[in-house]
Design brief:
PF0523-like, alpha+beta, 5-stranded antiparallel β-sheet, about 50% helix, 8 helices, about 15% strand, globular
Length: about 190
């Protein structure tokens, strides 16, 4: 998905990536960065991202922090991770949403002023062996994921029940709670 963020004069790319092998974060991020100059890239654990709104809100907060010189970290890609994890501490953010050693699914977040550079990045990914674009992780949901999300984002049953709406799935409710936590992080 490519989305224009007009207020910040940026284009955002969010895609799920899947590998048959364990994803080696350092190798993959270096490869992607080599193939795409002037593109901010972040990779997140695909099993812990709740949806595109989760990422869009994190990116908007990171860009707002950069625009207002109020970033938590010194690097925009790290700032995206910090907001997506709803944590101020970088180490905790990496623990929550960083790509783990046994990850097969990641979410690619890329920002550029050039839409063409983002399409070029997608083309480069499509040519990579053992890696494919697959957005099915945005649709995945099960009880185990719900329990993991509750633990890593510190969401209590009462907090969950107070936000739950009739027309919302459990996944959407968790996403709303995480977005709320990101908003509070932006205010602190």
């Amino acid at each position: 998905m490519i989305k224009s963020l007009d207020e910040y004069d940026q284009i955002l790319l969010i895609e799920g990536l899947v590998s048959k092998k364990n994803i080696k974060y350092d190798d993959l991020i270096q490869t992607l960065e080599r193939k795409s100059s002037n593109v901010v890239i972040q990779l997140l654990d695909g099993d812990r991202v709740l949806g595109r709104d989760h990422i869009i809100f994190a990116v908007l907060n990171a860009l707002k922090g950069k625009k207002n010189n109020k970033m938590i970290s010194e690097d925009l890609s790290m700032e995206i991770l910090v907001y997506a994890s709803a944590q101020r501490q970088i180490n905790k953010s990496i623990e929550i949403l960083g790509v783990r050693k046994n990850s097969h699914r990641v979410v690619l977040v890329a920002i550029s002023k050039s839409e063409k550079k983002l399409y070029d990045l997608l083309e480069s990914i499509s040519k990579m062996q053992d890696l494919s674009i697959d957005n099915s992780s945005f649709n995945m949901w099960n009880r185990e994921m719900a329990e993991t999300i509750k633990i890593i984002f510190k969401i209590s049953n009462s907090e969950f029940e107070s936000v739950k709406r009739k027309n919302y799935s459990d996944k959407k409710t968790f996403e709303e709670l995480i977005i709320e936590k990101m908003a509070l992080l932006a205010l602190s």
